[in-house]
Amino acid sequence: MIDKFIIGMIGAPFGVKGFVKVRSPSGETGHLLTLQSITVTKDGKERILKIEESSSSDAGGKTPIVLMRFEGIDNPEAAKTLNGSQLLAGRNQAAPLEDGEFYIEDLKGLEVYGKISHRGTENTEDTEKSKGEEEEKPSSLLCDPRVSVSPCEEFKIIGIITDVIEGGGGDLVEIKLTSGEKKLVPLRKEFFTEISPDKGKVVLQNLWILE
Length: 211
Hints:
mainly beta, about 10% helix, 6-stranded antiparallel barrel, Elongation Factor Tu (Ef-tu), domain 3, about 45% strand, about 210 residues, 6-stranded mixed beta sheet, 3 helices
């Protein structure tokens, strides 16, 4: 799993004392207000900055933001150089997770399993035929022990998660299929019946969403 997360994005300067606007990708700001220092990255370069002041603000309109002033940054010109930077932090400094929540970085790279069929729902004719003409099924269609569902359900790996994108109606999961094609699926329980970063996979229940 990823050890560091992007917990904030630095925007434009605020005021004349070197404050900058910081937006939290999770929408939560309480954890940002507890920071005393933070790793700031921009253009591939990282540095640790001490936070001298921070406070919540409604300057971002509907989006909650935090105003921060860093040591050595005491005027708008210096603050402007931080615009576009990202705040990196470990898990202990990231926004706390509620039940059913996941860090976006932990979802990237997870294998996506698609549900194929139920062995127990095969019709009688097919069952009788299979008794006399049993064929070996490809290993990709066999029940995978890492998928914690009924053993009669068949799954196969259909791709991996490459990104999670913020959409107007909610987050969208970008899946790179084994064919190389990319598809977007709403990050909702009716589509993803299991999300297990610790097991390295997710289960996509309804494959029609990929059509």
